[in-house]
Write a structure and sequence with these properties.
about 1100 residues; alpha/beta; TIM Barrel; Immunoglobulin-like; 8-stranded parallel barrel; 30 helices
């Protein structure tokens, strides 16, 4: 912030730069408030308690911080009937400045409630907002709040808003009432202040609240804000997730945005800035100082080569004799005049000066953090976004917690919960307590830590010893398949594994032997240059006790990475890592046999999350039966070969879609959320050892055409894992760039991008914060010769000789049930593929996209063939939502697509040369156990009576969904879907793993289901979902709000060349080798040439 006060009479905000014309991303600005210093933005306002920044006197605040503004709450001053603050002489700067003794050049921001506020159980009224003072709850009306503004004269005042008081998830009716009240209150408040002229005369800037509810429920209020923009000076944002929606309000975009959405970490602050927040309120500065934590983070982050904590626990005895400053290079008063040992002593002695020095330091660090953000933005949005990525890599995800006592906390700042532990422990104890009890408890914790370390908590997956080889033991390879090798030697500093003084062996060696031959150094064997040793540090938790106490185990690492290796000769290889003067880690690798081509083309259909019980239920819904015998079947039922694949990941028996897709595409298992790599411990999530995928090998070896079709967003796990190589599946923008441009950081398998790429996920393509480097990837694809389609009409008309991109909406595509049966729901979506809040229209289905993909790929692949993956993504997504009808609708769409594809391939004359596979990547614990009389169920008054509507065994009856198919079928003579989705007698179905929810077994007509809502940090049954149903108790942790994947094996159907290879039960990685063998991607005929 500038040190020069602004003495102009006006209150102005001027944008200095923004990466987008609609100001929807991070931006530089300057806020000038009459008589105060100019505030350069992005910046922050200090959060006060009773008008003071905790632990700092006004003169210390003025002398030792660069703060430009302080956030204050009216409820801190009005605990008495006649608040003394109103009797304070106003002076030259107003009563609020005089009463709090805030420096005259610092601005005040006044709101009714604290940040964050204590939830008020009685809520607000139609005329007043509830306050929580030191003497209990009281209320303030609009007129009273306006009078307070006139008498106190803050620089900025946040108008009253009907914000949430007892729940984070109001009903739609409640939310609409909130917006109407807020609109009425704002108009009344502006009237009392005399409009813009009156505010200007009083030197007050009014910031209008933007409520923490869905955009669709307050659009009318936002329209009203545009009508009164001339009387407003800014916006107070209670939930920053609404900011992308504000781009449609051009008169609101230029206003400064104050965030009252409480961030928990500096990572959250960066996300808020990236969304366009100009001024943040950051309560965690005060809580960290209270906890005895000294901040150590900076922006842009330093290149440390290891994961760093964002603060130091100054209670730790590690600092008792340290003469270092709190942060090397910090110029704050605490760091230039004192050292860590002194701060540790002050805290241990409970001297308030300790917390004062910590607060001075932490406010300085945050001020420098924002200065770095502004400098970064001055160099361009891409530089800032890279800084965010680097910050996430360099620093831990959470701030450390102090291990000592806090200063005395005033009770009215916190809501007391039943059974809540006190912030500070009692200073005395019962002398009769067994003095050995703490030791026994510690021994129990240690014992459990060892057990947990061997089960659910792991230092690094696939690395049970202190020496790690990635790919690990028992890895398989296709002959000639490219891969990276990462070698790590761990030296745990603390915890149950602590060894070698925390110093890793940098002189480790790695050898490899093939077929019993003498071992050779790895670099010599692969004829690559020996890489340099890398070093870093990481942390992990040994068990739940360590998590609860926030006691991580620290590990120092020495490592090497060998890039772009390949083994051409089938057989067994043994890799040995030797370290610490005698310790060894061995890995046995197998290169699978070579095989010549048997199929020209492969089409791999993936029903995401699809299991045999789901297939059975879909058959029941869509295919009629007579006397228990089906009169028609699913198309996949007609496939000649049925097998099953096991879906475990590399280090857990339950998988997610990222690493299960990676196993199908590469023949290598990896860790949950990772794809195309073996997850290592390095701080860089993009440098993990990679493995080549089926698409990359097919492109490199066969030079054929390949593509991906999905009803998910294209950066989602299943479609993007064909080219993705990341540890974090959520790096969506990076993954789209990898799909188009390949890997640029390291030498890797070259590919020119997919020949076909159809699905959703427009937010990664149109320019903005969610696209790679903010760039226009529609334009990037077009520049590489792609046709670009944004709806069904343009898709069908696309030139089949050109590579084709089709992106039809934001997010995942609407499901079959909404596209075909409940079409009005489509108009409620905000998913226009061009961006903005309109809904996507003229949507293609899975069959449309698959058929077009086959046409393009067959033409472009020619005699070299093609590989196509086509995914029905929302079988999984709707199973997560417990929306079984929508999931089964998408499964039937998948089967309809398979049926049409077989027919199409036959007409094209290429069916005999095409291997068609239908499978899943994982499963859910879904099944049907009877039928439910939905009419009877809803007529009952209590939950136990409602359950009697379920009929089992003989009372399950016959399905009422299906009708005879034929020429009159509205979806086509050869398509099979239910004739009704709303029979009285519906299937009684569910999953074994679910949150608390309500169930009435009816289709959810109004849109996809939300079974649970969060209340107080835990999920409970959504009272709006199936209100006439009964409560089903959950079986998951209370922080899980939707269903999860299950252990079940999943089916795999095969038709065409090599179909016989897919029978039986086998690992999911084997699917890759069976496909690669059938395509001849490691042909036997190539063996002799390579040997020569």
């Amino acid at each position: 912030m500038s040190d020069a006060p602004d003495m102009r009479l006006g209150n102005t905000f001027r944008l200095l730069s923004s990466a987008t014309s609609d100001n929807s991303t991070a931006r530089l600005g300057r806020l000038a408030l009459a008589g105060r210093r100019i505030i350069e933005t992005p910046n922050y306002a200090a959060v006060t308690s009773r008008g003071c920044v905790p632990h700092l006197t006004p003169d210390s605040l003025s002398k030792h911080t660069s703060l430009g503004a302080a956030y204050m709450a009216l409820e801190d001053f009005v605990e008495r009937r006649d608040p003394p603050i109103y009797d304070t002489p106003p002076g030259d700067n107003g009563r609020l400045h005089s009463f709090t003794a805030l420096a005259s050049d610092r601005a005040t921001i006044l709101a009714a409630r604290r940040c964050p506020p204590v939830l008020a159980p009685m809520g607000n009224t139609r005329k007043a907002v509830t306050l929580f003072t030191s003497t209990g709850f009281s209320r303030v009306t609009v007129a009273e709040f306006a009078e307070a503004a006139k008498r106190l004269r803050p620089d900025v005042i946040v108008a009253l808003g009907e914000t949430l008081h007892t729940s984070t998830t109001p009903s739609s009716k409640k939310a609409l009432n909130m917006t109407q009240r807020t609109e009425d209150w704002l108009d009344e408040f502006l009237h009392h202040l005399g409009g813009r002229q009156g505010c200007g005369d009083k030197g007050i800037s009014v910031f209008a609240p933007v409520l923490p509810i869905d955009f669709t429920l307050q659009w009318s209020y936002l329209n009203h804000l545009e009508d009164v923009t001339d009387e407003l000076s800014g916006l107070a944002i209670y939930d920053v997730r609404i900011l992308p929606d504000l781009v449609d309000y051009p008169s609101l975009s230029p206003l400064p945005k104050l965030s009252l959405d409480v961030p928990k970490t500096p990572h959250d602050v960066l996300r808020q800035v990236a969304l366009g927040v100009d001024i943040c309120t950051i309560p965690f500065i005060n809580s960290a100082s209270d906890a005895g934590v000294a901040f150590t983070f900076a922006f842009p982050p330093p290149a440390t080569g290891k994961a760093e904590p964002m603060g130091l626990n100054m209670w730790s005895p590690d600092h008792a004799a340290s003469l270092k400053p709190l942060l090397e290079g910090c110029r704050c008063y605490a760091c230039t005049q004192h050292h860590r040992a002194y701060l540790h002593h002050l805290l241990s002695a409970k001297e308030m000066l300790g917390w004062t020095l910590l607060q001075i330091h932490n406010q300085h660090v945050v001020g420098e953090f924002f200065a770095g953000v502004r400098r970064s933005l001055g160099q361009g949005l891409a530089y800032f976004e890279q800084g965010i990525e680097d910050f996430a890599i360099v620093y831990h995800a959470q701030l450390p917690e102090g291990s000592g006592q806090r200063p005395r906390a005033r009770g009215y700042h916190f809501k007391s919960e039943a059974g809540q532990e006190k912030i500070n422990n009692s200073s005395w104890t019962d002398f009769a307590v067994d003095l050995f009890a703490p030791r026994m408890q510690l021994a129990a914790v240690f014992s459990l830590a060892v057990v947990a370390s061997a089960s659910t908590f792991q230092r690094l997956g696939a690395c049970p010893s202190l020496g790690c080889l990635l790919p690990p033991d028992r890895s398989d390879f296709l002959a000639g398949q490219l891969f990276d090798l990462r070698v790590e030697v761990h030296a745990p500093v603390n915890g149950s594994e602590a060894a070698h003084g925390g110093i890793p062996d940098e002189a480790f060696t790695v050898t490899i032997s093939a077929g019993g031959a003498p071992p050779r150094p790895l670099g010599d064997f692969f004829q690559v240059k020996e890489p340099h040793v890398e070093k870093w540090q990481f942390q992990w938790y040994e068990d739940l006790f360590a998590v609860d106490s926030q006691t991580p185990s620290v590990v120092n690492v020495a490592s090497k990475a060998y890039r772009s290796l390949a083994m051409n000769e089938p057989g067994t290889y043994e890799v040995m890592l030797s370290y610490y003067g005698g310790e060894e880690t061995k890995a046995q690798w197998t290169v699978r046999p070579r095989a010549d081509k048997k199929a020209k083309n492969v089409i791999l259909f993936i029903g995401d999350g699809m299991t045999t019980p789901m297939i059975t239920a879909a058959r029941l819904l869509a295919h009629g039966s007579i006397n228990g015998k089906y009169q028609s079947r699913l198309k996949m039922d007609e496939f000649p070969v049925l097998g099953h694949q096991m879906t475990h990941s590399i280090d857990s028996y339950l998988t997610d879609s990222a690493n299960s897709a990676s196993a199908l595409y590469s023949g290598h298992k990896c860790t949950v959320n990772a794809m195309g790599i073996h997850a290592d411990s390095s701080p860089d999530p993009l440098d993990d050892p990679k493995v080549e995928t089926i698409a990359e090998i097919f492109s490199r070896v066969r030079r054929g055409a390949w593509g991906a079709v999905s009803t998910a967003f294209l950066a989602d796990a299943t479609p993007i894992a064909l080219t993705g190589h990341v540890r974090r599946r959520f790096d969506y923008a990076t993954l789209i760039d990898q799909a188009l441009n390949g890997i640029s950081k390291y030498k890797w398998s070259p590919h020119k991008g997919p020949d076909v790429f159809f699905g959703g996920g427009a937010e990664q393509f149109y320019p903005g914060f969610l696209s790679y480097e903010g760039k226009d990837y529609y334009a990037k694809f077009a520049a590489k010769g792609y046709s670009v389609s944004l709806n069904r009409t343009s898709l069908l008309a696309a030139d089949t000789s050109k590579r084709a991109l089709g992106v039809f909406c934001q997010g995942s595509m609407p499901v079959w049930l909404d596209r075909n049966e409940y079409k009005d729901n489509l108009e409620t979506f905000h998913n226009d593929p061009r961006g903005g809040n309109g809904h996507a229209g003229d949507l293609p289905g899975l069959k449309d996209m698959t058929f077009k993909a086959i046409d393009v790929l067959n033409k472009r692949g020619g005699d070299k063939g093609f590989f196509l993956m086509s995914e029905a993504a929302s079988i999984d997504k709707q199973m997560h939502n417990l929306d079984y009808d929508r999931a089964l609708g998408d499964l039937l769409e998948l089967d309809d697509t398979v049926r049409g594809t077989i027919d199409k391939l036959g007409k094209m004359g290429i069916l005999d040369e095409t291997l068609v596979i239908v499978t899943a990547d994982h499963g859910h614990g879904f099944d049907v156990w009877g039928s439910a009389d939905t009419k009877y169920l809803e007529a009952q008054q209590d939950d136990r009576a409602k359950r009697n509507a379920i009929g089992v065994y003989d009372r399950s009856g016959q399905a009422q969904y299906s009708a005879g198919q034929g020429p009159n079928n509205k979806y086509g003579a050869n398509s099979y879907f239910p004739s009704t989705w709303e029979p009285r007698y519906a299937i009684a179905a569910g999953v074994g793993a679910a949150p608390d929810h309500r169930e009435n077994f009816r289709v959810h007509r109004s849109g996809p289901r939300q079974p649970a809502v969060m209340v107080g940090g835990e999920f409970y049954a959504n009272p709006k979902d199936s209100p006439a149903g009964f409560v089903v108790n959950g079986t998951l942790p209370t922080k899980e709000g939707q269903g999860v994947h299950s252990l079940t094996d999943v089916p795999i159907y095969a038709l065409g060349p090599c179909q016989e290879a897919f029978g039986g039960t086998y690992d999911n990685t084997d699917v890759f080798y069976k496909i690669a063998s059938c395509l001849g991607l490691a042909p036997e005929s190539e063996r002799s040439r390579l040997s020569q």
